């Protein structure tokens, strides 16, 4: 690998991928563990926490708000230790704005954390985060009694002014978004009465699984979640399993690299997160999971994936998108190598991720010589079996970690190197991505 002025040359893998690997802690669960520990009374013990830029944004935020964080780096690269929360005393007014960096989860979840307190906090973020829509969270929280300034602001920077007399709400969310659901539920934890969120299809349910560990009465059914407000949150122990969204990149690499057969261990097998396995299977890949054990109430186990020499296109229906929302770029690359057309239904939400991932996937695949297009909110990819990247190909991550890994993958499984601009964006979720994938290479 040769890195020069924010471009990284990704050389093809020198052999097939074999053996086992552990992926780092789940990003969504790590954010929640850090934020919920900060809200609780006492010291929560955490292990397996992802050490990445995004999670560090949440850690810094809770420190600014008065939580005491004593997390240390472990030999496996994870963070472990204690967080002593503000509990019934509430968060303190920070000494300046909270910079959420690139992390939408930090910004949106914090709005819910802060809503039930008489406190004014300015939230901001990097250029990408400052473009992302926030009204989806400020609207329901405003109905509960929180206020946001400047009035009507739909993007960061904005100031949250919470209130001790927050009203519980029944919120029918127009989008399947775990960030929206979680922000409303966290606000509901500090409101009198029952707060309930319904969504069009079930988004990831880590919040509903974790809140009861902290003593919050929570009920959840497919597409509906509710919390009983005003129960004090108490410290507990949280063990974070491996991130299926990181595992997905290794799984896609194995599916594409001839001769590969890998196992990814200790991965969250939460059904709301492993839609990518089903899609790989539908494309003809031998992908399975086993050894399911439970850490807290999150299921985890081993994912096994083998190379597939007969990939074919498939259709991913709208109601499955939430279970693989972050995996669409990587799966699009697999689809680009498959026979026939793959369609991802109703993926308009991808336009407002860290970048416009629809535009980026269509443009990037176009440079690979693959035809991809949108029809309404459906993404179509016409695969090209035997696809090889053109020599000297340059692709940009646009500062988006999932695109950085997708474009790196294009080069890793090809016969020519690709140059990825801004590959460093991987540090948002998977700083060790290249090291992990290269650790699986069996040289001939
Ligand atoms: C996340 C929810 C999803 C996902 C994001 C993490 C979370 O976003 O894309 O990477 O931790 O709740 P949306 O809630 O916008 O769908």
Automatic annotation (TrEMBL):
3-phosphoshikimate binds at residues 27-28, 32, 177, 179, 326, 353. Pathway: Metabolic intermediate biosynthesis; chorismate biosynthesis; chorismate from D-erythrose 4-phosphate and phosphoenolpyruvate: step 6/7. The active site is at residue 326. Residues 17-435 form the Enolpyruvate transferase domain. One of its GO terms (cellular component) is cytoplasm. Pfam families: EPSP_synthase (PF00275). Its EC number is 2.5.1.19. InterPro entries: Enolpyruvate_Tfrase_dom, Enolpyruvate_Tfrase_sf, EPSP_synthase, EPSP_synthase_CS, RNA3'P_cycl/enolpyr_Trfase_a/b. PANTHER family: AROM/DEHYDROQUINATE SYNTHASE, PENTAFUNCTIONAL AROM POLYPEPTIDE. Catalyzes the transfer of the enolpyruvyl moiety of phosphoenolpyruvate (PEP) to the 5-hydroxyl of shikimate-3-phosphate (S3P) to produce enolpyruvyl shikimate-3-phosphate and inorganic phosphate. Monomer. This is 3-phosphoshikimate 1-carboxyvinyltransferase. It comes from Slackia faecicanis. The gene is aroA.
